[in-house]
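Task: complex structure prediction.
Instruction: return structure tokens for all chains below.
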Amino acid sequence: MTSELDIFVGNTTLIDEDVYRLWLDGYSVTDAVALRVRSGILEQTGATAAVLQSDTMDHYRTFHMLERLLHAPPKLLHQLIFQIPPSRQALLIERYYAFDEAFVREVLGKKLSKGTKKDLDDISTKTGITLKSCRRQMESCSVAQAGVQWRDLSSLQPPPPGFRDYAAIVFFANNRFETGKKKLQYLSFGDFAFCAELMIQNWTLGAVGEAPTDPDSQMDDMDMDLDKEFLQDLKELKVLVADKDLLDLHKSLVCTALRGKLGVFSEMEANFKNLSRGLVNVAAKLTHNKDVRDLFVDLVEKFVEPCRSDHWPLSDVRFFLNQYSASVHSLDGFRHQALWDRYMGTLRGCLLRLYHD
Amino acid sequence: MPGKLKVKIVAGRHLPVMDRASDLTDAFVEVKFGNTTFKTDVYLKSLNPQWNSEWFKFEVDDEDLQDEPLQITVLDHDTYSANDAIGKVYIDIDPLLYSEAATVISGWFPIYDTIHGIRGEINVVVKVDLFNDLNRFRQSSCGVKFFCTTSIPKCYRAVIIHGFVEELVVNEDPEYQWIDRIRTPRASNEARQRLISLMSGELQRKIGLKVLEMRGNAVVGYLQCFDLEGESGLVVRAIGTACTLDKLSSPAAFLPACNSPSKEMKESPLVHPPSHGCRSTHNSPIHTATGSRLTQNFSVSVPTLIYTGMGSGSAGKEGGPFKALLRQQTQSALEQREFPFFTLTAFPPGFLVHVGGVVSARSVKLLDRIHNPDEPETRDAWWAEIRQEIKSHAKALGCHAVVGYSESTSICEEVCILSASGTAAVLNPRFLQDGTVEGCLEQRLEENLPTRCGFCHIPYDELNMPFPAHLTYCYNCRKQKVPDVLFTTIDLPTDATVIGKGCLIQARLCRLKKKAQAEANATAISNLLPFMEYEVHTQLMNKLKLKGMNALFGLRIQITVGENMLMGLASATGVYLAALPTPGGIQIAGKTPNDGSYEQHISHMQKKINDTIAKNKELYEINPPEISEEIIGSPIPEPRQRSRLLRSQSESSDEVTELDLSHGKKDAFVLEIDDTDAMEDVHSLLTDVPPPSGFYSCNTEIMPGINNWTSEIQMFTSVRVIRLSSLNLTNQALNKNFNDLCENLLKSLYFKLRSMIPCCLCHVNFTVSLPEDELIQVTVTAVAITFDKNQALQTTKTPVEKSLQRASTDNEELLQFPLELCSDSLPSHPFPPAKEHLESASSNSGIPAAQRDRCSSWIELIKLKAQTIRRGSIKTTMTVEKASPVGDGNFRNRSAPPCANSTVGVVKMTPLSFIPGAKITKYLGIINMFFIRETTSLREEGGVSGFLHAFIAEVFAMVRAHVAALGGNAVVSYIMKQCVFMENPNKNQAQCLINVSGDAVVFVRESDLEVVSSQQPTTNCQSSCTEGEVTT
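Output:
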């Protein structure tokens, strides 16, 4: 006796959250059944393995049919084939577009297209995430990149929590920031997402001009490209290190303010010019796309690593950066105060986040 | 009554990409009705076209309106080649033809293609203007309402129940026409869909005409079926019960929907009085010219068993004259009718007087080509024959009517088994004689009371019983005789007293048969049938005893014929009726008593069985009150009876007649183990595992013993196909496989629905088919309903309360007798109703004297009065207590709003005639849809499972879309009548046909109703009652 066909169709589509998770994680039916057996469900319900197998197959089939709709969430809301309560629909979408940080950390800053899909195999072996799941997450990233427009179409309020993170992923992918270098390995996805958010808010086209008048203006932040004009202007900051007097004045201002307050004052004093040169040169270089890509590498090389080698505590870094950016306002010969604030305000936040072991 | 049909095509969405180059579609729509076609403009390059067409107007006869479906085809315009069809929508405009139903059909319909499935949606608006035309000779029957529901629909009142209507139409199956060889599968499928749609329209119209002739205005319990006879044609047949229904006008008069579906049938209907009953000639056209045609047909009539109790009988002396009188009165009324059959399964209180038992008839026929589709005489004659047989069976049981009547077929190649079954019953004679509506209320009132156990009383003559039965005095009234076991095809009457809960009982059976041709095949089948019937019956009986129960309701026996085997599947809901005697246990007897180890084995088995019975009694909460010995005699079987032969596997059914009448007072059921077969039997008895805790199942509308449903429902269809390995095809292996298949299916259901616990699977409907040599297909449709566990514990109180509520919500007349009602509803109450009540009632309408004799003893009366009063006072306090849990229930309902903000409206589907926690306010019309789906890329669509899963989901979607377009939010009495699945994996092909039907309705949540009613201070009483109903 072999089973040829075995289906269950409910008027309301049954969604088993546990099985959905297993499916999303890319387990095959056999593996999923094994995992469910291990979870002790058979003992709880008194079911047999055959029942579990049939149940899992059934759910997988349903999810497989739903996947087409999940690729375009508004379709899921308007389709007639599956009757799913709104709360369940939200859950389906939210879970489908959730990702593993480990995976995202790998693809961060890479092109979200075919090129990297070939590398999915490597990522899968490296992170231990199944290939299927990697493929899904890659696809959701592309969906997010291709058009975030479905978000406003969907009546799902508030947006899924993972959604802000997609902004970071797409932002990094658009600007092709390098994140894979060995010296950047210590940084988590969270660190990058934090920086991305700051940059999106301050350095993109959407950030200029209109002040946030209503809460919906968040949507403008989705402008995923850096403000080219702003990057060009950053060249002007070079004067801070190129002009020797200005540099000395800046140093003395910072040193006076921080004397006695910093545990690593002598190291700071000795390194000031190097650090300042590093930070300003990063800004000046941002005109070239290639250098934009290396932004995080540069920041780590030029600032994080020197400080770390001198064992600066985080609080001292904060003091220093605050003072460093604030004292520029007292430099009389410097005319680009606003530009400096836009640049340094964001950079300060990023650096503080990046500064850890 | 010609009419004008107006159609407007508004827009489309989610269309498929038809032009690969642009990834877009240039869509336009063709609207066709009859022979007229209109077209919209082409909407260029869009997947979401906005046609916003003008109103397309069709001027048509009402005959066409009834027969033809509106056909909407969406196409992709192609300048150079032929336009590609995207898909079609068929809209049955019948619901627009009755005055009270829908006025407009408007909404998004899935665009369906038989090859690709659903491809986008289209928004359509349809209206009909009817012109009144009182043409006497009209061919149409617009205005006759159709209901699939097998009880009087809520929000209607039955004025007269006229009786049986039937009709069949035949045609050639397009799939088997010569043209099919040259046309595409799509064209062939569409031709078939269209033809069946036309035929069912025609059938409905013809039935409607019969109803009008009978002066009815509605058909209730309408059941339409297709017989795909292959080469010999396509038969569409329907049966139903003609009624005159009155709409209950004011919504305030609606009584809360409550849990028992038939509770709202407050008004008692009248069976059509004999003076009007001259319709028999129209009722069922009998074609006398059977001569040449019939002799050509090979036909075997199968001797049928009449199911009722088994066991040995004892003679009684009482009750004869009354019954004779009853029979005389009713027979005169019903004999006017050719077939006194009713497709209803639930009845207004008092309608049913006695139930005799299940009657069924089967006949094996050889199909031949239908020569003249306009005169389907052969098929008509076949059914007439079977109905005649049913009628005579009923007569043998002393009954003049058959209720819960249904017909079915099973076809394999050229052999066809026709089956009909129902429950022989005696209907109330006064309903037959008194034609005035006014008298109804009082009549029903007092009629209500005696029927509490009355329907269990035997209608036949004890001295002249049609079969051996063991009779005792009714455990409720102690006056009339009852059988030890009662089998019926109807739902449990709402006023019946049940102890504990019910459960689904199934008998499953397979028999191998040799492959044969034509006559030899038919003969082989008809030889096998009686044995199968007998064994199915024995299995049912054994399982019933094992459950410790004594009655079966909703019994449905399906015999399916295949190439090399016959399958029998009987499903029913077992209950313990308080009026019937406690079932005896099951005794096992060995043939070789001297063998020590064997004896030990036997006693081991015996112990196991006894344990199971005890466990089941506990599980289903069967704890009947102790009965004093002197009334019924000793229920304990004597040990020497163990050796007595009652039944054995290997012997033929003739053995039954060898019952020893002298010793069979209260026999235990004896199973003799004389060979491995019998051993298997006993084993299989014990392998049926009860559902996991928190689950109950039944195949009737509601679960006896549970009456506090909450609002969550989940209707589902599950299909399984197994392939038998051809090596070990023995009867035992087959039986085991089949048994495992069904059991595993049930287990899967329990597992899948575990999140709904505590819940009950209601209306579990199994269908077996044998699509190929080694394939068995089982299709199950059922609904899972959640209930409140805490309140379930109070089952003993609830009936009391229910009736109080009923009394208080009911009309003034009822309020005069609340106490009597209450006392009567006590499950353990062993006495007949109060005397003064009976007297007052009888003075009104003159009960036959015999009936009054029922409460003869004055002592009983005094006891009764005392109890009545006590119960009455207790009850009032109970209602007050009840008020608090109600609040909870409502709160829960509100906290989970019915998804109002969703973009797609939720449409509930249920095989039941009601929606728990809600009130049906309007019937929008019948939904009867037929779909074919075919694929030539089976693997790509996920194999057979993926294919069928998607198709069934699509069918549900299309049903929901049609209901929503009618303005409804639910389908009740939903049934999947056919699911024919054929596959050819080698060719990567599969085809499936599905036929579904149901009633589209509008329902309102009871919690919402309450808000409305509590705003009106005058209806204060009513609202409190509404609350009460929610909890029960």
